[in-house]
Structure formats: C-alpha cells, structure tokens
Amino acid sequence: MNDEYIQLGRVTVSPQAIATIAFNAARQSYGVVGLTSKNLMDGITQVIVKDPTNGIEVKYDGEKISIDLYVIIEYGTRITSVASSVSNTVKFHVEKALGMPVEQVNVHVRGLRVSDMD
Amino acid sequence: MDLKDIEKKPQDQLYPMQKYPIDGQVFKSLVEASLTWLRTNQQTVNSLNVFPVPDGDTGTNMVLTMQAACDEIANSSERNIGKLTHLVAHGALMGARGNSGVILSQLWRGFARALNNFEVLDGQRLVNALHQGRNTAYKGVVRPVEGTILTVAKDIAAEAERSIVYTQDPYDILERIVTAADESVIRTPELLAVLKDAGVVDAGGKGLFFILEGMVRFVKGLPLDVNIAVVQPLSAMKLENAFDSIEPGQDFEVVVDFYPNEELNIPQFYEDLEHIGTSIQIGEGDGIYRMHIHVEADKIYAPIEYTKTLGVVTKAAIENLHSQMEQIEHERGKSIQFTSVEPGQIATVAVAPGAGIARVFASLGVSAIVEGGQTMNPSTQEILNSFENLPTDQIFILPNNKNIILAAQAVTQLTVKHVTVIPSRTVPQGLAAMMRMIASGDPKVIAADMNSVLNDVETGEITTATRSVEIDGVNVLQGQIISMLNGKLVLASDNLKDATLGLLKKAHADHFELITLFYGIDVSRMEVDAIADTIRKKYPKQEIEVQEGGQPHYPFIISIE
After folding, report:
1. C-alpha B132: how far from its chain's center?
2. Which one of B65, B99, B103, B138 makes the best mutation probe of the A interface by having the most chain A beta carbons within 10 Å?
3. Does residue B241 contact residue B56 with C-beta atoms inside 8 Å?
4. In sequence order, what are the beta bridge partners of B260?
5. The complex's ipTM?
6. Model pTM greater than 0.90?
7. Which residues of A touch B374 (CB under 8 A)?
8. Could you tell me which residues of chain B have a Cβ less than 8 Å from any Cβ in chain A?
9. How far is CA B370 from the centre of its chain?
10. Cβ pair B102:A33 closer than 8 A
11. I want to staple B234 with a disulfide (CB 3.0 to 4.6 A). Which of A95, A111, B72, B283 is the partner?
C-alpha cells in the first residue's frame, strides 16, 4: 500500500509492518500496559494481545496514514497524559521508520489494569 | 547492629533543620524547595532532549507536574506526613505532563501509599516509601527501558536500603540518595545507546536528581534560585534557539571557543560572565570550551577580552541579534505571490524543483506552481489539480524538465480546458519562455513566440554522479561532480568549483552576456559566494547573478544567455 518510488522500482510497506512499529512504540510508552483486540464482543473479558494487528488498526487512503490504538492503561496514571504521550511516541517512531507523515493517531482506552488500589 | 552509632555525626555537625522530625509541614517545605530548584535548572534538563517529539521538553513537563503538586499543598496545614504526601501525589497525578511527568506522578503515588497513616517520616519509612515509589512506577510499563528516570528511581531505592544499615536519620539518607542519583544519571548513557550517541545523560533522570537535590540544598541552607554553572556537551548547546528571547538592551550575541590555560573554575567563570551579559551557556568538548552570551552593544568585545585572560581563544563570533531576527522574520514572511488571471486570459503553470526557483517564476507572472523536477516528477493528476480551479480555460504549462513533458502533455486529454505545453526541458529554458509570456492575446501566437526562445538560452546543470559510467566520451566515477550542458554530460570533476568553471568554459560563456547561478539546498551560501567571485574574475565582461533556487540534488542550475 504505502508506495514510495526509488530509483530501481517501488517499495511497498504493508499495514501489518506499520502496525508492528506502532505496537513496539506503544509497548515502550509509559502507562500503556497492553493492547487489546479492537473487535471486542460484549461480555468477553479483555485480553491483552500479543499480535500487533489485533490492537492496532492502520488506515491509508492513498495520501494519509492514520493509526488507531486500542490500549489498556495502568490504573492511577493520568489517562489524558498517557494517551497523548503514546500517540506522540507512535507518531514519532512510525514517521522515523517510514519517512512519511502520519496524519492521525487515535487512542482508544479499552480498559484499565489495577495493580494497586489507593 | 551498632554501625549506625559509629557513623552517627556529632551533634554540632548537624544542620539546624536536622533537629526537626519530618512531619507534613517540614515535608511541604522540602517539596517546595524541589520545585524551585527544578525550575532553576529547567533549561538544563530541557537541553538534554534526544527525541524531537512534540511533548519533548522534559524539564518543562516535570516542572509543571511538580507545580501542580505544590499547588495542591500550598494552603494545607496538614501535619500528618501520610496525608500530606497523598495530596502531593494527587496534585502530581492531576498535573502530570508528558512521559516524565506521568512517571514522576507514579513515583509520588507509591511514595505516598507507603506512608499511609504515619505521622512523621523516619529513616525506615523513607526507605519503604522510595521502595514503593519504584515498584509503582515500574508497574506502569510493559517493557521498561533502562537508562531512564526509572533506572534512577531504582538506584535511589537501592541506595536507601543500603544506607539504613548506617543511619536511621532520614536527612542523612536523603543526602546519600542524592549522591546515588547523581551517579546513576551519569551512568544512563552506558545503558541507553541513544543517549550515548547524542552525548547526553537522561533528561528525566536528571530532573529527578534535581528534585532530590533541591530538598538537600534546602536542608543545608544553600540557595535554590541561582543556577549553578552547568557545562553541557558542545553538541547539546542549543544556540540556534537562543535568539528567540532577546533581553532588552542585550543586542549582540557573542560566541567564543577557547582552550583554558589551566583547569577552568566553572562557578567563578560563570559568575564573571554574569557581570558582562545574559543568556550564558557554557559547553565543553575535547578540552575546548565554548561560551555563549548576550551583551549590550558597547560590551561586544568584553567577553573575548575576558576569555583571553583564561586561555587561548581559537574562534570568536559576534552577531547582531536584531538583524538576525529581522532576517528570520523576513524569510518567514516571504510567501509566494501568484499572478491572478481573469476569464479568457492565459494562466501559466510552472513546474519548479525548489522554493527559490518557484519564487522567480512567480515574479515573472505564473499563476500556479507544481513542485517537482529531477527524481521527483509530479503526476499528471498533480499538474491537473494545480490549474483546475483557475478562472480561465487557457492554460500554458512549463514542465522545465524533459521527463515531465510527457506527463504535462497527458494532462491535455484530462481536462476541458485548452492546455498548451511549452516543452521547456530545463529551468532556464522555462524562465526564458516565461519572459515572453503575455496574459492577453492569441494563445497560438504567444506559444509560438515562447517556443522560439527556448533554445536561446544555454542550460548548465551540476550534480553528483550516482554511479560510474562512460557517456559521450566522458568517464565518470560514482560520487564525482558532473557538469551537464543542455542535458549532455560534458565534464566530470572532483569539486564543485572546477565543475562550474569547466562547464562555463565548455558553454563558451565568454560569448554571452548574463550568467545566473541558481544554487540548491545542498550547498552553503559561503561556498556559492566563493565560486561566484571566482567566476566574476574569470568573466569580467559578463554579468553574474546569484539566486537561491532551493532545488535538491543539484548544487547549481546555471542559465547562460
């Protein structure tokens, strides 16, 4: 999908590859303790996924890349700060690896993990 | 265990404050001291940033987080340490900004939880609280990266646990963990490669160090609002941003590089500089020191004279900040003004490989620009988009590159407008044709006139060979500078100057009148000026013009007419 022309031909980067970059960036981001499947059926417990394509959705409309993250955040952190931090980190790492601008990173907080109650 | 008694300081060596148990109100003063000291050193922490991410200013983020914590306790007269630290943690949580701020708030959260229901903070409780702070902070991340604020928090907790063997005094433990924090921060580049590459220590870790050091400085009665001179690595000096804030009267920026004769007394050096000017920055690398300062107009030589007394000055630069500012604002304001067209008139679209060239075309009257050129050919669609909204149906296109002519001609099939492609193969040809453009008149006649001048101009292009090859009898090695005259390879040389002069010779430039050099983004203005001077000496009868072209890959596009 995301094509770039080089001198000898074309380089194509799949959404899965971008999702993997985003996945690793998200996992290194402070406050994010996991990613969860975007297709949650009602009543099914939230499972932390290992496969990047489950917790991350990459869309490309021919011009712009937008990324949706479905995350679980540590209870007790400030969710807005963690969310803006993870979206910045993901944007930075994807843009650095890809050399293409990322238009949007949407963070969907799907749950909180409680390690300690205050 | 009697070690603690052996290590115990005699009473007369205690700081006056050490006599007080740490209750809520004492701790409040300590936290406020942390904030003041952190704020004093905010820029130092900011300068350590490695990633240019938007929420990047670690120092600022940590200050804002601590500020929120202090606001929370500002009006509290709570004496219970457990309750007070919960307020601190709550404030830090609500005000947490950026990654480092969130981690800091988690450290406070764990710290407070360990002190639940305690009245005062003693040695063992401090150890437990630091331990809890570390644990809570580590829970917030799946893959902790070492060499960050988390590592520093871990080292602090470990040092506290070691200290309790020697002393039960929380003040003494605090002093020990500050030393441990300092050492831990220094080790961060060994653990994290990006820090090592950038030649800096971790910003968040350094911030945490300042927070703890602020407490200890307060206990010792040391000043908190005076920035102690911090020497940064040369690579971390942010001089290009320095003129964002000019203090009134401080109109000149002076930067001096020097080798000190003997080891530099940094605090003394800093203090002396403060008498001369403001915005002081000191950098060090391989024994060379760089000093940066803003001074008043009549003191511009003072920093240099002063530095000469300390060692050997290797380089000094003085710049007028106001003219720098004006120049920057001028550049920013230079947006491109296109010529508007009326229905029935001819609108011209030019393909330009750089901002400077686009500006020149705009000044000659084009109505739209399409970015593109060698290795970045615009698509037919992009060319179409550029003129679809213009209020006329007569369109001329100047492709300005032989590889774009076809794409431009394809546009004629896609639109109901009458499109004429003037097949300019180079930028100088396009400019020559543009000189003949008249907006109102018979398009056929005008197009013919524009076409007729295309070959009146000689085009020189200078670029770097991407592979070794032999064309037109010229042997080229990869990486050499090659000169092309009207698209034909004429010369390969090892430097830009020879390439330019050789090209002009091949073009018989001495038979022409005007030589215009459009310089690209890869070549410095200084180099351009030097080459232009040489050309002026060689071709005294020709007029030489230098224009910023802004094109990539081609240091020079040369028009000879």
Report:
1. 38
2. B99
3. no
4. B311
5. 0.77
6. no
7. none
8. 51-55, 86, 93-94, 96-99, 101-103, 105-106, 109-110, 113, 136, 139-143, 145, 375, 466
9. 29
10. no
11. B283
Q: Are B125 and B114 in contact (CB under 8 A)?
A: yes
CB contact under 8 A, B102 and A78: yes
Which residue matches tokens 């040391």? B222
Question: CA B561 to CA B557: how far, in whole Å?
Answer: 13
Nearest by CB to residue A27, choosing from B54, B103, B143, is B143
Specify the DSSP element, H or E, that contains B259.
strand B252-260
pLDDT in tens, B458-479: 999 998 887 777 777 788 888 8
Identify from A5, A69, A81, A82 which residue to disrupt to test chain B contact, counting B C-beta atoms within 10 A and taking the largest count.
A81
For the segment B21-56, what is each residue's pLDDT rounded down to a tens digit?
999 999 999 999 999 999 988 888 887 877 655 456
Q: Do A85 and B94 touch (CB under 8 A)?
A: no
Whole-angstrom Cα distance, residue B345 to residue A107? 50
Cα B149 to Cα A8, B254, B304, distances in angstroms:
45, 35, 39
User: Please, are residues B146 and B152 in contact by the beta-carbon 8 Å criterion?
Assistant: no
pLDDT in tens, A63-114: 788 999 989 899 989 999 999 989 988 998 898 888 888 999 999 998 888 8
* Inter-residue contact A97 to A20 (CB < 8 Å): no
Give the rounded distance of the alpha carbon of B160 from its chain centre.
39
Q: Do A84 and B55 touch (CB under 8 A)?
A: yes
What is the C-alpha to C-alpha distance for residues B2 and B524, in angstroms, rounded to an integer? 70
With an 8 Å Cβ cutoff, is A90 touching chain B? Answer: no
Residue B235 DSSP code? G
Does residue B34 contact residue B215 with C-beta atoms inside 8 Å? yes
Question: Across the interface, do A33 and B96 touch by the CB < 8 Å criterion?
Answer: no
Contacts 24+ apart (CB under 8 A), A58-63: A58/A15, A58/A16, A58/A18, A58/A19, A58/A22, A59/A15, A60/A1, A60/A2, A60/A15
Q: B96 vs A81: CB contact, 8 Å cut-off?
A: yes
Amino acid at B206: K
Spatial contact of B49 and B203, defined as CB atoms under 8 Å apart = yes
CA–CA dist B195, B199 (Å, integer):
6
| Residue A13: Cβ within 10 Å count | 19
